[in-house]
User: What shape does this take?
Amino acid sequence: MKHRHRFVTLGTACALAVLASNAVARGIWVSNNSDSGPGSFREAITAANGDTSVNWITFARGLGSIGLQSTVTFDGTQALRIDGHEATLTAAGSEAFDLFAATGGGWLEISRLILVGSHANGIVVSIPAEAGGEVRVDLWEVILTGNSLFGLLIDDSLGSPAGVLLNAQRCVVTANGTGAIDNDGLRVNERGPGNISASFKQCLFEANGADGVELDEGDSGDVLVQVLHSDFIENGFLDIEDLEDGIDVDEAGDGDIVALMVDCRLDGNGDEATDLNEDGTGSLFALFSQVTANDNVDKGLTAEETGDGNIQAVCSQIIAIGNKKEGVKLDESDGGDLEVELHNAYLENNTDDGMQVEEIGPGDVAVRIVNSTILKSKKYGLNLTQGDEGTGLLRLQHVSFAENISGPCKVKGAEVIETGLPK
Assistant: This one.
């Protein structure tokens, strides 16, 4: 099966072009901070629910906080753009309800809106069972903070044929998921055959009770994730029995994971910095560049493939310091090959191995490490295993190993063809 891999960026300009081309499109202004009634946000959404020509809702400037008495729900099927102009949606009182929900399956764009203090979820996008194509959600300068459950939940638990297309740019997602376990800052659940395509640019995910971001593809689609200039800091500490990650990407069916992370910081998370898991028939492709993964309670950068598929990973200019297990860990545990390149990396003071690479099932493993430093690991600097049918190859070029307690390298089942190991 061929998969078309593509990444997306925020579609604000495209949205404006689509709306401009619609001769009957019209908008509604939110002119006050009342919970309901003329000029309120609730009234504007009610109008959009009843009139598919309503394609945009704009808040007047300076409205401040809007205390909601119950969920505002958009159930229309049309594309809708909401520009909050820095208005704040919050829960009035102690009742538990989502601040905003979208259930129609149309393209949703939200910009410059703050959603804070729900005793349930900030935003919930529920995908209808009959949805097809792609359900698209664009967020620009949205703040989701202090919501007891998810900051944002995109939910395809009904298993529609649709894929999910998510773009988030300059968003802040903090201190969500503190009211119950396993509620992330941002979660996408995809249970049908569609793909998850997610792009995060200049975003912050910090102090969320579970994962900063979790992308969960439970069927036969791919997960395509691009993360640029974004930080994942101190997420995942609510449940001390099951600590969570900075970013968690799961693909359980016949599909691939394609992950690109550039100029990101993933520090101090409760479990792993990254947790990429491809569990079915599919491969995992990852590129990490200019990424730090420091002081995480478990591992730093991790990727695992447990079905019939390959791992191809490139790690360039990464730093992994002070993680409580491995700094970098890559595992392929079924039929498939594992290819890893590490360039210009610095791994220091990780409590297990500095870097661990394992090919447990039938398949080849090839590792190339260039211009890198691995030191002060509590076990080996590099632990490489080719444990079943297949060949193993390790190339070391200008690599410095120092003060690794168990030794510089442990290599099983692989030929070292060039080495810079100390005597």
Notes: The CA atoms of residues 294 and 321 lie 5 Å apart. The helical segments are 12-21, 41-50. Residues 1-23 have pLDDT under 50 and may be disordered. Residues 283-423 form one domain.
